[in-house]
Inverse folding.
């Protein structure tokens, strides 16, 4: 059974998105893929294409690089939603020079108000070295705070490493 709220965390190319997609596929409800990435180069375009090719016709994709609240507010408990990913969402806000605290607060409130069970994917960025530039350090700190807040909201928190899930909070379905 799909938990009401799930936070999936992992490093780059750890298998976290694939694992999250499989989690939703095991639920009978229609699936919404809330895509936060923006395509600025061929490398990102290729990665997005890989993600798209994994999803079949049961998925409805909504592009939402910045404002997730309208889509989350319109979902019902007869659907499920995968937000992929919080890291790209945060990056978009950072590059737009948004008020990160306000954006995070709005996201958390939208998740609390969402009628559909939700799964949100994010990158763990705290295991690396201290970045040498101020923007990268600001991003790392903001991502860490966002991840902590998302983990606090979620009923299930899963760390995915080499494609293998480990429950940090709650029980794996």
């Amino acid at each position: 059974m799909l938990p009401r709220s799930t936070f999936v965390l992992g490093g780059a190319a750890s298998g976290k998105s694939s694992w999250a997609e499989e989690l939703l596929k095991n639920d009978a409800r229609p699936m919404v893929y809330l895509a936060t990435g923006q395509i600025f180069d061929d490398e990102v375009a290729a990665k997005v294409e890989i993600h798209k090719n994994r999803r079949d016709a049961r998925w409805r994709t909504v592009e939402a690089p910045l404002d997730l609240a309208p889509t989350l507010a319109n979902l019902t408990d007869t659907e499920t939603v995968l937000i992929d990913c919080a890291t790209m969402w945060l990056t978009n806000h950072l590059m737009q020079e948004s008020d990160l605290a306000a954006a995070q607060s709005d996201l958390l409130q939208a998740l609390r108000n969402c009628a559909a069970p939700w799964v949100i994917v994010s990158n763990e960025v705290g295991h690396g070295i201290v970045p040498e530039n101020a923007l990268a350090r600001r991003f790392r700190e903001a991502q860490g705070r966002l991840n902590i807040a998302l983990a606090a909201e979620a009923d299930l928190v899963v760390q995915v490493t080499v494609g293998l899930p480990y429950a940090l909070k709650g029980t794996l379905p």
Observations:
- The CA atoms of residues 50 and 63 lie 16 Å apart.
- The helical segments are 16-25, 42-54, 69-74, 86-95, 100-113, 134-153.
- The first helix runs from residue 16 to 25.
- The chain is about 40% helix and 25% strand.
